[in-house]
Amino acid sequence: MRVWTAIGAVLLVVGGAAGCDSGSGKHADGPAEPADFVATGIDDATYSGDGIQEIAPAEGTFAGPHFRHLFTGSAVAKTTSSLIPGAEDLDAAPGYEFVALFESPDPQMPEYGSNVDVTTTVVVDGQPRALPDEASFGGGYLVSVPVGHSAQLVVTDAGRTQSFDMRTGRRGPDAVAGYYPVRTASVPAADAKLTDDAACDAPIPTPTGSFSDCEVISTFEITDGTGSLDPWAPGLGWADDGRAWLVFPKAEYEARVAGLGVSYARDADSLLTLTLPDGSVVPGVSTTPGAINLWTRTSTPLVFDVPASFTTGKLTLHPDGRLSRTIDGVPAATWTKAPQPHSVVVTVSP
User: Fold this and answer.
1) Which of 219, 227, 282, 302 is deepest in the core (most CB within 10 A)?
2) pLDDT tens across 120-150, in order?
């Protein structure tokens, strides 16, 4: 078997075989391509011809926790030149034809990783075909199949397998419903950073007077103000049936204290909450549970366990932490301007 990869409009050899020039990748005169021929890297900037069946974005999306494809067209042909202008003219074996699946070259990838624990194969009549290592990154596929047959693109990600029919341009019945459509969460850009400025009294008696004023500034920021509603989340795995994870992959919290001999701490498990339209309150799920302490800037995915039908809610920062003294024998610290909750509206689309 030969495995080829396509870059632009030129098919390059990954494994050589008789009948081709393994140095240049040019198709030599003579035999047709083997019956188990596979090529990858067929993006939607290279195709042409009347036989292209366009695939709408809603049907062409194929996604999992660590991969994302946006297929834009499929086609069946006996030669590559009828599909990919400028490519070498490759012919299918007798009794075979090529099935092509074209892809947008820049699908939006999940923020929290790509191609982690992902395996990709092409299956024809129950038999898997080997792919180049880079095939998991997408770019479209060209596969030789018996005339009238199809090929299934099969991807296993985080233990779940999904398939995509290359001939019909449709996802299989094993599609994970929570990814279709891919849903984006967002907060207004002006509210992506929440800040609370609290004041406190932390006296330190001295022979000449007393130092007492202190300040606690708490900030929470969702980087870029964006997240997603997914059936899988990092560190948590797959959501239960009827549930989904609201994920903000880049969220940062920081508490800073100004004052002598005083510290501040806030438990992460109740620092952030999400209020649903029915009034129920969902706590944030931290992947690094524990106290958030003085000068600690915590950057971690912020996750909420919500109904799969979630569309909007109110995310609230609760900076009402604990004051303590770091010097023995001095009075306790007290709030003079207590920390206040701050909220922002989260919406999910489409």
Assistant:
1) 227
2) 899 999 999 987 655 444 568 989 999 999 9
